[in-house]
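Before we proceed, please read the two lines closing this message. Let me know whether the C-alpha cells fit the sequence:

…
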Amino acid sequence: MIVALAPGCTRPAPSPPAAPSPSAAPTPPPSAPAATPRGPGLVVLTDVDPRVRTDIRYAGAHNFVGRPVAGYAEPLCLLTRPAAEALRRVQDAALARGRSLKVYDCYRPRRAADDFVEWARQPGEQRMKAEFYPRVAKSELFDEGYLGAPTAHSRGSTVDLTLVDVPTPTQPPYVPGQPLVACTAPQGQRFADNSVDMGTGFDCFDPLAHTDSPRVTGVARDNRRLLRQLMTDAGFVNYDREWWHYRYRDEPWPDTYFDVPVARSSAEPAGG
C-alpha cells in the first residue's frame, strides 16, 4: 500500500500537536523535527498474533526505490493496538479458509513518506521502474494517486497485506541487481512472491492494481474479493486503487501523523 492521495487514505495533515514534555524541558534547536506524541497502543503485530507472516519491503531493497527507506530500523509491523487486535480476528477467519495473512507494510513514519517525496524529485533515479511502475511515468506518480504525503500509514492503523496458502510456500529471496519483471506480468513470470495470485505484485503502480479492475478475472479476482471480505468484516476500509491497502475504520489517531522509527523500541509490550 503505499501512500496515496485519496479519500479515506490520506488527508491534509494538520500541524501535529506538540508532545507533552516536562515543564523544564529545553526548547529543541530550530533544525530538530517537530515532536509528535508517540500514541498509546503501538504494538508489534507478531507479538499480538505470531501466526501472521511478514515481508516488510521498505526495510530492505525490494521496493520501488530499490533500497531501505528512511525510518525502517527493523523489519517489523507496528500497529495501534485496536488495529492489531482486529487483524488477529482477520487471521482467525483467514485460517478457517486455509489461508494466512502476510503483511508488507504497517505503521510508516513521516520521514519515510518524506523519503518517497525526495525520491520522486529525482527523475533519473528509476532503477526499479521495470518492476513497480513499468507503464506509468515517474513524473505522474503523484498526479495518478500512487504517491503522496502525508499518508494514513503514519497514523498507525493502516496496513498493506495479502493472503498466502497454508502451508505457505517458501519465497525465494530478492537479490539486488537481479533481472526485473513487470508487476503486471502473470503470476508465474513476476517476482516469486508466495502470495496467492492477486493479479499484480505488491506496490504495483498500475490501473491493474485497482481493487475492482475489470481486467482482473478468475482466481485473482476471487482472491481480491476474499481479502476484502475478510478485512471489511473486521472493520477495515480498502483504498480502491490498491488491492493490498486497508485502513482500520475506528483508528484511534485519525488526525495525527507519527514519526517514531519502525523499531521494537517504538512499541509497547503486547500485553499492555
In short: The beta strands are 42-44, 53-54, 78-80, 99-105, 158-165, 236-238, 245-248. The radius of gyration is 18 Å. The chain has a mean pLDDT of 88.
